[in-house]
Write a structure and sequence with these properties.
It is a single chain. It is built from 21 helices and 13 strands. The strands form 2 sheets. A 7-stranded mixed beta sheet has the order 7-9-10-11-8-12-13, sandwiched between helices. Strands 3-2-4-5-1-6 form a 6-stranded mixed beta sheet, sandwiched between helices. β10, α14 and β11 form a beta-alpha-beta unit. α3 runs parallel beside α4 and α7 runs parallel beside α9. The longest helix has 19 residues.
């Protein structure tokens, strides 16, 4: 959303006589700048208040009336102000827990509706009592667009860049830098550019990687997502020939040729199937083959005990993913978070709301975020998730067949510095029939520990002994695996 669009939308809300507008954001100064632009266009004076500074007209912020610092004094003062004004109230919503303040605020809102005035409540979290929520309209402040980010770059260069070395960027480098800055707040962008200039003595192409590293650090600190840098992604996947072929075709959706034919990039895929058979590994390999960073969302991390915070966490996670675009966005075990949590009434419909928000975002997202969702339990997946068009394709992962088991054995032995050629794989491969990839890996690990305890190298005999002592999931949970296979038969595309 462009800067002019944001100004236009806020201007429309204010001219439509909305008495209360709520904006959840940490970018307080950006809200103030937008409201100043609206004030200039509408000729409505802009006032602002905070509990530390008091009340003042925005362009005369040095003339602060500190006697109007308390919430009750402010509300009493607002009732007597002239018509057609805008008042920015910083972090005011937390004072509305007080019954007197809530009552006074409702009366002020009633007066504002008649006077064509608007109170803008801004803060990181704006939680309102139900009776005030009914009077308010919520405005979502989108992240800064290229126009605003470009202005930040010019501003920083103008203030410190000239003293350093200015800008040493080609037109392409500049576009890459602005794309890398996507998803940063204006303040974060300002800090990132300043750091890059001071680090190199000028704004150089190295700033692009510096900004990406900064965003990766923000993602880690946010606690909602795990970040897998492309440079660290060296995972291998045995088998899955059909999935790999589909991914090769789908990747063409990101090409200029596809855009020229009005083809949109692929939205994502759902991978369902037997636990331990490579769904998670497939997500990592997709990112590696497409040379994209990987973000992992554990849906359970979204849930918060406070009302509204879980939905806010989801929006944050999505915003982080979009800011890293193009990116692979892995939602692990979706049925344990967004889906199954809403199957009862214990969560007051939270799971259903999160699931609805996810489906809406998946359908409408514009950024190049390729979603890979994984699921083990098909019985709890609702039909709206499985219908055609929601995902580009739904793949089923079964227990590995003989060629896949051989490939898995070679990969896992090689990862642990064992030469596969020294093993009788023609005997080992049939012995692990019914084993998942994870179970084969664990059998190799356990047999290596057995070899260490015997003070001898791992050989075919030790590996076979470990396999014979292992009861795979296909035996211990035979009924569940059979039911899963029967459900998937003829409905989903096999990965092989």
């Amino acid at each position: 959303m462009s800067l002019s669009t944001s100004i236009h939308d806020l201007k429309t809300l204010i001219l439509s006589s909305h008495p209360v507008v709520a904006i959840e954001t940490v970018e307080e100064e950006r809200v103030r700048s937008l409201l100043q632009a609206v004030s200039e266009q509408t000729k409505f004076p802009l006032f602002e208040w905070s509990i530390t500074r008091g009340f003042a007209r925005s362009e005369m912020s040095s003339e602060v009336n500190r006697t109007i610092a308390s919430p009750s004094a402010l509300l009493s003062h607002l009732e007597g102000l002239r018509p057609e004004i805008i008042v920015l109230l910083k972090d005011f919503s937390r004072h509305l827990d007080d019954a007197t303040h809530a009552r006074l605020f409702r009366e002020v809102a009633g007066q504002f509706a008649k006077k064509r005035s608007t109170a803008v409540l801004a803060g990181d979290t704006v939680q309102l009592p139900n009776e005030i929520e009914a009077l308010a309209v919520r405005y979502r402040l989108h992240m800064p667009d290229h126009e605003e980010l470009a202005a930040v770059v010019s501003s920083v260069i103008g203030s410190i860049g000239k003293k350093a070395g200015g800008m040493e960027l080609s037109s392409k480098d500049r576009d890459d830098l602005l794309r890398a800055m996507n998803g940063l707040t204006l303040n974060q962008a300002r800090q990132a550019i300043s750091h890059a200039i001071l680090e190199d003595g000028a704004l150089t192409p190295r700033a692009v990687q510096g900004v990406l590293d900064r965003k990766a650090q923000m993602i880690k600190e946010g606690g909602l997502l795990e970040y897998y840098p492309l440079a660290d992604n060296r995972f291998e996947l045995g088998g899955f020939a059909n999935l790999k072929a589909w991914l090769q075709r789908a990747y063409l959706g990101f090409s200029p040729e596809a855009r020229a034919m009005n083809l949109t990039p692929p939205r994502g895929i759902l991978i369902v199937g037997v636990p331990g058979c490579g769904k998670s590994l497939a997500c990592k390999v997709i990112a590696r083959d497409w040379k994209l960073p990987l973000l992992k969302l554990d849906a359970g991390r979204l849930f918060d005990k406070f009302v509204g915070e879980s939905e806010k966490n989801f929006r944050k996670a999505v915003a982080m993913a979009e800011s890293m675009a193009p990116v692979v966005f892995w939602i692990d075990e979706i049925e344990k978070g967004m889906v199954s949590a809403g199957s009862g009434e214990a969560d007051a419909g939270l799971g259903r709301r999160l699931f609805g928000a996810f489906l809406t975002w998946l359908q409408e997202k514009k950024q190049e975020v390729f979603v890979v969702a994984t699921a083990n339990d098909l019985s709890v997946l609702p039909p709206e998730l499985l219908r055609k068009g929601r995902f580009d394709e739904i793949f089923f992962v079964d227990l590995p067949n003989e060629p896949e088991r051989e490939a898995i054995l070679k990969i896992q032995l090689g990862l642990r510095k064992q030469n596969p050629a020294t093993f009788d794989l023609k005997t080992v491969v049939p012995a692990c029939d019914g084993f998942s990839g994870a179970e084969i890996e664990q059998a190799i690990v356990s047999s290596l520990y057995r070899a260490l305890s015997h003070k001898k190298p791992l050989d075919t005999g030790l590996l076979l002994e470990e396999l014979r002592q292992t009861v795979p999931l296909s035996v211990s949970r035979r009924e569940d695996i059979t039911r899963l296979r029967d459900t998937a038969k003829g409905r989903f595309v096999s990965v092989r």
